[in-house]
Amino acid sequence: MTPEEKARLIIDEKLCQSGWIIQDMNCLNLAVSFGVAVREFPTSTGEVDYALFIDGQPVGVVEAKREEAGQSITDVEIQSGRYANSTFKWVKEDYTIRFAYEATDKLIRFTDYKDIKYRSRTVFSFHRPETLQDLLKQPDTIRNNMKHFPVLDETGFRKCQVNAIKKLEESFADNRPKALVQMATGAGKTFTAITASYRLLKYGKINRILFLVDTKGLGEQAEREFLAYTPTDDPRSFSQIYGVRRLTSSYIPGDVQVCISTIQRMYSILKGEELDESAEETSFAEFTTAESKAPKEVVYNEKYPPEFFDVIIVDECHRSIYNVWSQVLSYFDAFIVGLTATPDNRTFAFFNENIVSEYPREQAIVDGVNVGEDIFLIETNVGKNGGHLMKQLIEYRDRLSRAKRWKQLDEDVHYQPTQLDRDIVNPSQIRAVIKTYKENLYTNLFPRRKEVPKTLIFAKSDSHADDIVQIVREEFGEGNDFCRKITYSVDNSESVLSSFRNDYNPRIAVTVDMIATGTDVKPIECLIFMRDVRSKNYFEQMKGRGTRTLSKDELQKVTPSATENKDHFVIVDAVGVTKSKKSDTRPLESKPSVSMKELMMNVALGAKDEKTLTSLANRVIRLNSQMTPAERKQFEEKVGTPAGTVAERLLNAFDEDVIEKRAQFKTSVEEPDEEERKEAQKELIKQAVAPFHNPDVREYIENVRRNHDQIIDNVNIDSVIFAGFDTQQEETAERVIKTFHEFIEENKDEIVALRIIYDETYKNRPMAIEQLKALYEKLKSKGITVERLWDCYAIKKSDKVKRGTIAQLTDLISIIRFEMGYIDNLTPFADKVNYNFMQWTLRRNAGAIHFTEEQMEWLRLIKDHIATSLSILPEDLDLTPFDRKGGLLGFYDAFGDNYEEILQEMNEELVA
Predict the structure, then answer these.
(1) In this predicted structure, what is the pLDDT of residue 778?
(2) Three-state SS string across 770-832, please?
(3) Domain 372-573 in this protein, CATH class
(4) What confidence tens digit (pLDDT) does each residue in 100-109 have?
(5) Which residues sit opposite 315 in a β-bridge?
(6) Rounded to 10 degrees, what is the CA torsion of 754, 757, 762, 765?
(7) Same CATH fold, 372-573 and 143-358?
(8) Distance CA 502, CA 550 (A)
(9) How far apart are CA 26 and CA 16, in angstroms?
(10) In 96-188, which residue ranges form alpha helices assigned H by DSSP?
(11) What is the CB neighbour count within 10 angstroms for residue 627?
(12) Domain spanning 143-358 has what CATH number?
């Protein structure tokens, strides 16, 4: 049986388990069952692997991929979406394909396209037809409902409880799958959880909640609190409104909304086994230590399918239940909320570090031709020092399929930072970097932006890129479109790249090599390096992705809040790439986008060029470094040559010295001619490629390459050691300021003429603004904008500059005066106008006659106009935004014959 056939067989089995009848196209009969999955159904864009029909209507698609297909399951999302938006052949009635699955023989991911910012998620198995039918009947989805919780009536709640509920609902609204409520003992964790449950049932329209405990006593306590709870907006008790049941047998009633159970009992229910009640008496942590050393494997249960519960609340979630019993939690397609007073690192890891509430501690809220770069460094403990794992049961993951399993470590493991995201995956290390970037985004990196600038993240491998994509989506609370992977393994990667370049989404793209060089994406304003690069040339090419200039108008097409031309980009260095030593030599890898399997096949089909053979040598060298001594011995037995020798021969075939020596040996002459060298090289190439002609050898090498699992380190929670601009940043700022000072000297006559705007008269100010615009165009031709200048002064003289100012044209006046020493502190021109306006209106309103509210509306509009244009003339009042209030005539109606006096007075007073 081929891998493809094996995968299809398992997918068929899972569909059948979930209540679907499977049919081939030539046996199509939709009337035979309520839910039918039709293989290879034709659409306008090709045949979809499975088309899902409910009651004769198409509602979903399934894209099936074999595990060994050289493609991770998340790469198939775009393909599923294409089929979902295609026309189904022969179907005439109106229909919408709302559901999509991507499946292998190990994993299934699911997307409901009706969700706002829909996001694919891993599910244990396919939903049952009747479940999908129920979803179709609902006015909206649960995830959409969760975006519209009403304001909480805080009467009777502690502040920490209010904070926990609000933050939890924000987490639900962002579609974050897990959330941790950390609350001190006695602060009311269960009361908080019950309030959240009530609001989820009432406003989220969810069907059922599972409240998990680890002892019978905690279950009874939770039951009492649920029964005693009365919401603030209903005189009835919780149990009068919704059904509550503590489970004491293997039966779960379908008509209750809250089920309270120990994790032990829920496991036995899913396995279809009876539970010895004594197992519920002991703390779960002790139970697992005494009774089990291996993962508890749950299987599909038709009575209680994965969609049975929508939310799982885990009480005392800090206890060690995740290694052994995590499948009890992951079986259900549900949000998971953890409650604890004493979390440990494993708890933080399990809940993706999504701590929605902490008590008593206040939760931190963190808020020319080319352009140059600012460098922002992020250094983490694990990223700098690596980590240590003691001998214990640990999680492993297949690099390609991403299927996970638990296995006992044979010995302690200490890993170096260079092993991260290859042999060892520490999700916390990735998350620490992404969180730090997000936290600094609108404060230090892009203080004037309302949306995330176009950001490109460089990953180490395709698997690493997958991890980054998922964590970015979670940390930013966004959907699939917000962050996309752009690698050669992605289906229709060029289309994704085009969207990254031209559309609002994706805001963040993750790549390995595909767009590291040569690809022009001008709107990119931030590069995040999560991989080191040792080739100087390659690093410069990668930096080039951010150096492209772009006008304000073009930038605003994809980044609407941009206020200036693109004047710089930011490198976020999370791996020390800007500090590591660089080599001028070319990288050995000439074909990074071609898989090892393809390279071997190219050689088997006759490829003998230098790029192919040296790239293959690099792959063999990399594989040799990854293999254990036992594997190296087996490699030599299978291939007939040690892996190191195989790689060496491939490289020697293009080594001039080796070729020369071979020619000398063959011809017995000191100076072989060109033809003799060519013949010698042919022999070297023939010897080097010989192993790859054997299909068994190729298959063996590919299997060895695949067999290296990654250890998932959920023990070492990472922390940020340093996050801030590099010292090089000050040098860059100094260079920009020096260029500006030289600009002032070059244009001193024009600048002196502009000083008229500070005279008492205002008559020449309209002319002055035009001169200022012309001066600014000269400055921009040197690649310097007002915003860039402001930021550079903020770096060099932070104690004298207001940070994060949305600089505008008139602020050039303030900057010039600051550089020339006329003022001691750099504040926005608008601040001066606003202060003068406040003082002027206070004086005018101090007498018997006060400005009316209508008049004040006019005056505020005029004030804003002066802040950007230095002055105002009567004819300006017929332009936007004054035309909305009737223009000059409307102003006259408001102020009467004194209107010109008011305008003149404002021109003089506001810029004084």
Answers:
(1) 82
(2) HHHHHHHHHHHCCCCCHHHHHHHHHHHCHHHECCCCCCCCCHHHHHHHHHCCCCCCECCHHHH
(3) alpha beta
(4) 999 888 889 9
(5) 339
(6) 50
(7) yes
(8) 13
(9) 19
(10) 129-137, 142-145, 159-173
(11) 17
(12) 3.40.50.300
The distance from CA 115 to its chain's CA centroid, rounded to whole angstroms, is 18
Residues in the chain: 912
Query: Are 181 and 337 in contact, with CB atoms under 8 Å apart?
Result: yes
Tokens of 22: 């499977």
* Ranges of each domain in the chain: 3-137, 143-358, 372-573, 596-693, 726-827, 833-910
For residues 431 and 352, the answer to whether their CB atoms sit within 8 Å is yes
Per DSSP (E only), the strands in 341-381 are: 355-358, 372-380
Strands 335-340 and 311-315: parallel
Closest CA to 248 of 284, 202, 292, 216: 216
Residues 6+ apart with CB under 8 A from 231: 195, 198, 238, 241
Amino acid type, 479 = G
Q: How is residue 521 annotated by DSSP?
A: -
Question: What distances in angstroms separate CA 847 from CA 844, 905, 908, one per listed residue?
Answer: 7, 17, 20
In what helix (H) or strand (E) does residue 469 lie, and over which residues does it extend? helix 462-476
Q: Cα dist. 145→72, 114, 172, 175 in Å? A: 31, 11, 10, 11
- Where do we find the tokens 């600014």? 776
- The pLDDT of residue 91 is 87
508 DSSP β-pair partners: 455, 483
- Token duo for residue 255: 């008509």
Res 900: pLDDT: 87
Q: Would you say domain 3-137 falls under CATH 1.10.390?
A: no
Indicate the helix (H) or strand (E) that contains 46: strand 46-54
For residues 706 and 596, is the Cβ–Cβ distance under 8 A?
Answer: no
| Core vs surface per residue 127-160: b (16+ CB within 10 A) or e | bbbebbbebeeeeebbbbbbbebeebeeeebeeb
Judge residue 799's burial from the number of C-beta atoms within 10 Å of its C-beta, 0-12 exposed, 13-18 middle, 19 or more buried. exposed
**CA-wise closest residue to 257 among 269, 247, 245:** 245
60-95 tens-digit pLDDT: 999 988 765 445 677 788 888 899 889 998 888 888
